[in-house]
Write a structure and sequence with these properties.
The complex is a heterodimer of chains A (about 290) and B (about 375). Chain A has about 290 residues and is α/β, with parallel strands linked by helices. Chain A is about 35% helix and about 25% strand. Chain B is mainly α. Classes of the chains: A alpha/beta (about 290), B mainly alpha (about 375).
């Protein structure tokens, strides 16, 4: 009897200590973003705006969330992250004096995640939309994009446009993307069913197998994904005038402003063009992203 | 010759011999209950008050990252303002004090009680009191950190208007997946279970292989790989929903096989010998003597398996589904992706609980009935 009582009392005491410790930890972390300052370097070139002081979740590290399966923007080859977004992020981080740590996340929850400070920034070929602006802060646009229809030319060589799709057809799209929204808005009224996937590569695989008749996805990524799949081809461009931006938590506007300053610098001095030419045809660079020198 | 039927046997209930109680332990018991009740009433009172009031966005809410443009922002603001209400605060502190009193009183006096009932009251009061303390401290801690952010993301029900039908359809799909998978699994499991009991290794080994494989690999792997295997390996073009049912059946079959095997083995050997001595073959003995008795014993574990399967159906989110096929979790995930509001997940949990809790109660009731063991044997006169 005595042992049991002592044991129970000890258990309660340990539990209370743990609770107290956790409570004090909670108090600390809520102050990190905005409290402890890991200041970036102030403006270097005269006349250029100074980079505002900002802070990150971990000092000296830019934690970036991404789906990492969206070539040519972000993918992992031989254990190394590569892609347009990757190169842009690395350049931005080095100009801010930070190292990059990549966090893999599902795209359809990635905006809530960054708003909840699970990472500092999202670099995942994310289109800037009004609904997303309610939840996150976007950087200035860094890429102009559009949607596209990909089909399996070996199985359905006659389909060249979404107008030909109707009752009984199933198209695939990735959960949480503007492509899926476009498909739901424009194709469901035609009687087409939209099948949603957590990852875009799954949708292309389904297309390859012939389970669905087409995939609505961002065009440049579609080009990258079907490069190794000879049966699939992009048959229609869907001009949606989309712009990609990096997403930040609304509780960290300083980081977003700092990235905007660096991004403008990169565009002006030609670094953007260098990175662009690595992944896309050099003559397709839009005027607003050409260097000003 | 007429044989009178044996009277139905009643379940045994022990007579209550715990003895009288006394004011002190009774007071402890009452204090414990009071601490929990006070906290519950205090919190609910404020919440209801604020929910039906005309309050608007306050500075506190703005500081907590809730903006007037947020859909449902006022509702969320009411929730967290109510948490800070003086009524709630008083109730929390009162509840904690009552709980502490009950704990101290009960823990220090229960050993000196001379009757069992008094001891029960003292101990129960102490335990309830400690629960009241934990609840009070927990709520105090929660509301002091950043309740606004949590409430905005998980308690913001405004965006869920219009999704009622979607969630009902999700519940229907979840149940369809679970039922079909369980039915298939029972059939497969019965066959496999009997096979694993064969004397011949050639018969046992493949069954064992199947069971080990499906129990040893993650269900989500089985779903995703199964889909592509059937698609590319066998050229079968089926909807992911159908594939999910097949995989659930195959997976449940492995677990059900083990349950059937254990159930059959628990039937004493004498039954089998008696059946054989009556001239029945092995298969006939199984079919007419053993398995019918084993069925009663395997029902509770199989029903348990069913409840687990209902939750496992959430894994179909990893497959590509059309909207009419969404289960509860996929509906929640899609809703969250469209509105960036994680309250969908709160509702998904409620939906799953609505489905599983009654089933769990049913399982417990069935188990109790079957455990009395004499059902079906008493009254078998002729």
């Amino acid at each position: 009897m005595k042992n049991v009582k002592l044991w129970l009392a000890a258990l309660v005491a340990v539990f209370a200590l743990i609770v107290a410790a956790c409570a004090s930890n909670e108090g600390d972390t809520t102050g990190t973003t905005g409290g402890t300052a890991a200041s970036g370097p102030t403006g270097t070139t005269s006349g250029a705006p100074a980079i505002p002081e900002f802070s990150t979740i971990t000092d000296g590290v830019l934690t970036v969330g991404s789906c990492l399966d969206y070539p040519p923007f972000e993918s992992v080859k031989n254990g190394v992250e590569t892609g347009f977004d990757v190169d842009m992020t690395n350049e931005i981080a080095s100009r801010l004096g930070l190292t990059v740590e990549w966090v893999r996340a599902d795209f359809d929850t990635i905006f809530t995640a960054v708003a909840g400070n699970q990472f500092d920034m999202v670099a995942a070929a994310s289109t800037i939309t009004a609904e997303r602006e309610d939840v996150v802060d976007f950087s200035d646009p860094y890429y102009n994009s559009l949607q596209s229809l990909t089909v399996n030319t070996a199985l359905t060589p006659d389909i060249t446009s979404t107008d030909q799709l109707g009752q009984g057809d199933v198209v695939g799209a990735q959960k949480g993307t503007t492509g899926k929204d476009w498909a739901v808005e424009n194709l469901e009224p035609q009687g087409v069913q939209v099948k949603t996937f957590t990852s875009s590569t799954d949708s292309f695989r389904d297309l390859e197998a012939g389970n669905i008749v087409g995939v609505i996805n961002d065009k440049p990524a579609s080009v990258g994904i079907i490069a190794d799949l000879p049966d699939l081809a992009i048959v229609q461009d869907i001009d949606t005038d989309e712009h990609y931006g990096f997403a930040f938590s609304p509780s960290n506007p300083e980081l977003r402003d700092a990235v905007n300053v660096v991004l403008a610098e990169m565009i002006a001095d030609g670094t953007y063009q260098e990175i662009f030419n690595k992944y896309f045809p050099p003559d397709s660079i839009p005027d607003e992203f050409k260097p000003t020198t | 010759m007429a044989v009178t039927e044996a009277p139905p046997l009643e379940p045994e209930v022990a007579p209550d011999v715990r003895g009288p109680t006394a004011p002190l332990p009774l007071a402890t018991f009452a204090l414990g209950i009071a601490s929990l009740v006070v906290i519950a009433i205090g919190v609910l009172w404020s919440q209801i008050n604020y929910a039906f009031s005309d309050r608007v966005m306050t500075q506190y809410c703005l500081d907590q990252q809730i903006s007037p443009e947020d859909n449902g922002g006022i509702g969320v603001c009411n929730i967290i303002e109510a948490l800070q209400d003086p009524v709630t605060t008083d109730a929390l502190y009162l509840g904690i004090s009552l709980g502490a009193a009950a704990l101290i009183l009960g823990a220090s006096t229960y050993r000196r009680m001379d009757s069992k009932r008094k001891r029960d009251h003292a101990i129960t009061g102490a335990v309830l009191g400690s629960q009241g303390i934990l609840l009070g401290v927990g709520i105090l801690w929660f509301r002091s950190v950043s309740p606004g952010l949590f409430a905005k993301h998980f308690l913001n029900f405004a965006d869920l208007q219009g999704y009622g039908g979607a969630f009902l359809r999700g519940i229907r799909n979840t149940l369809v997946l679970a039922f079909a998978g369980e039915l298939g699994g029972i059939v497969i499991g019965l066959v496999l279970g009997v096979l694993t009991l064969s004397e011949r290794r050639v018969v046992r080994a493949p069954a064992r292989l199947y069971i080990n494989f499906f129990r040893g690999t993650p269900l989500i792997w089985q779903l995703v790989t199964g889909y592509f295997l059937l698609l590319f390996g066998f050229g079968l073009r089926m909807s992911a929903f159908t594939v999910a049912i097949i995989v659930f059946a195959l997976n449940t079959g492995a677990y059900a096989a083990e349950v059937f095997r254990a159930g059959i083995q628990s039937i004493e050997r004498g039954q089998f010998e008696a059946a054989r001595s009556l001239g029945m073959s092995y298969v006939q003995s199984m079919r007419y003597a053993i398995v019918p008795q084993a069925v009663r014993r395997v029902i509770p574990p199989l029903m348990n398996e069913f409840v687990i399967l209902i939750k496992d159906t959430a894994l179909v989110v990893a497959l590509g589904l059309v909207e009419s096929q969404y289960d509860i979790f996929t509906t929640a995930r899609e809703g969250q992706a469209a509105t960036f509001n994680a309250t969908f997940f709160t509702v998904a949990a409620i939906a799953y609980l609505v489905v599983t809790l009654p089933l769990i109660r049913l399982v417990n009731a069935v188990e109790k009935r079957l455990r009395s063991g004499l059902v079906g044997i008493a009254g078998a006169g002729s």
